[in-house]
C-alpha cells in the first residue's frame, strides 16, 4: 500500500493544536500560584515563619496541583507525539482534556481550604478530578490510536491507552475510598502519580510482559 504523504496544512494544524495546548497548560499552572498570592494579601503582616506555618495547606495543595498538571502535560505530549496530523474530532477531544486541566486549580483550592475540616469530602472532590483526567486521557489516546496514529510505535501507544483505560476504573475506586479511608486513598493516588509520571516506562513493561517489541 502506498504511504500517504502528510500535507503542510495538516502539519500546521497539529502545530496549532500543540501550541494552543501548551499555552493552556501554562495558564492552568499560573492560576495555581494565584491562590498563594492571595494568601499574602489576606495576611495581617505577621512574621514570615508564622505565615508559612499558618498556610502550609495552601503550599501542599499548590505542589500537588502543580505536579498534577505537569504529569498531565507529560502524558498529553506523549500521546500527541504518536500522530502526524490533527482533525476536527481531535481538536474537540483535546478541548475536553484542556477543560479538565483548567478546572484543576479549583479542586486544588478546595483541597487546601477544607483539608482539615472536611478531609474526606475535600480529597474526594479533588480525586474526582483525577477520574475526569483519566477519562480524558483515555479518550484522546484511543482516538489517536484508532484514527491518527503513526505506524512507528503504534504497539506502544496501545499499551499507553490500556494504562489510561485501567486508570478510569482505578480512580473511580479511589474516589469512593476517599469516604472510607483517607490514608489508603492518598496511597492510591501516590501510586497513580508514580505510574503516570513515567508512562512510557510502564507501557513498555506491559508490552514486554506480552512478549512483544516496539514497532
Which keywords apply here?
mainly alpha, single chain
Brief summary:
With 215 residues, this protein is mainly α. It contains nine helices and no strands.
- The SSE string, one letter per element, is HHHHHHHHH
Instruction: Give the DSSP E fraction (strand runs of 2 or more residues).
Output: under 5%
Shape: globular
The stretches of 5 or more residues where confidence is low (pLDDT under 50) are: none
Q: Work out the number of β strands.
A: 0
Which structural class do you get from the secondary structure elements?
Answer: mainly alpha
Rounded to the nearest angstrom, the radius of gyration is: 19 Å
Number of helices: 9
Roughly how much helix do the residues carry, as a percent range? Answer: over 70%
Can you give the mean pLDDT? 85
Largest sheet: none
Kindly report how far apart the N and C termini lie. 18 Å
Amino acid at each position: 500500500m502506498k504511504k500517504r504523504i502528510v500535507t503542510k496544512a495538516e502539519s500546521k494544524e497539529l502545530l496549532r493544536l500543540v501550541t494552543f495546548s501548551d499555552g493552556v497548560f501554562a495558564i492552568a499552572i499560573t492560576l495555581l500560584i494565584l491562590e498563594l498570592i492571595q494568601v499574602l494579601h489576606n495576611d495581617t503582616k505577621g512574621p514570615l515563619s508564622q505565615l508559612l506555618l499558618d498556610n502550609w495547606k495552601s503550599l501542599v495543595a499548590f505542589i500537588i496541583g502543580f505536579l498534577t498538571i505537569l504529569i498531565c502535560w507529560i502524558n498529553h505530549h506523549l500521546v500527541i507525539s504518536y500522530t502526524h496530523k490533527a482533525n476536527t474530532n481531535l481538536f474537540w477531544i483535546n478541548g475536553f482534556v484542556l477543560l479538565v486541566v483548567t478546572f484543576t486549580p479549583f479542586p486544588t483550592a478546595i483541597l487546601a481550604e477544607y483539608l482539615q475540616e472536611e478531609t474526606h469530602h475535600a480529597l474526594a472532590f479533588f480525586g474526582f478530578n483525577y477520574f475526569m483526567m483519566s477519562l480524558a486521557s483515555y479518550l484522546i489516546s484511543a482516538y489517536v490510536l484508532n484514527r491518527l496514529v503513526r505506524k512507528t510505535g503504534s504497539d506502544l501507544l496501545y499499551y499507553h491507552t490500556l494504562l489510561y483505560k485501567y486508570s478510569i476504573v482505578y480512580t473511580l475506586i479511589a474516589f469512593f475510598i476517599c469516604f472510607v479511608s483517607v490514608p489508603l486513598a492518598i496511597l492510591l493516588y501516590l501510586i497513580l502519580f508514580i505510574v503516570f509520571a513515567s508512562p512510557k516506562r510502564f507501557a513498555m513493561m506491559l508490552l514486554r510482559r506480552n512478549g512483544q517489541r516496539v514497532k
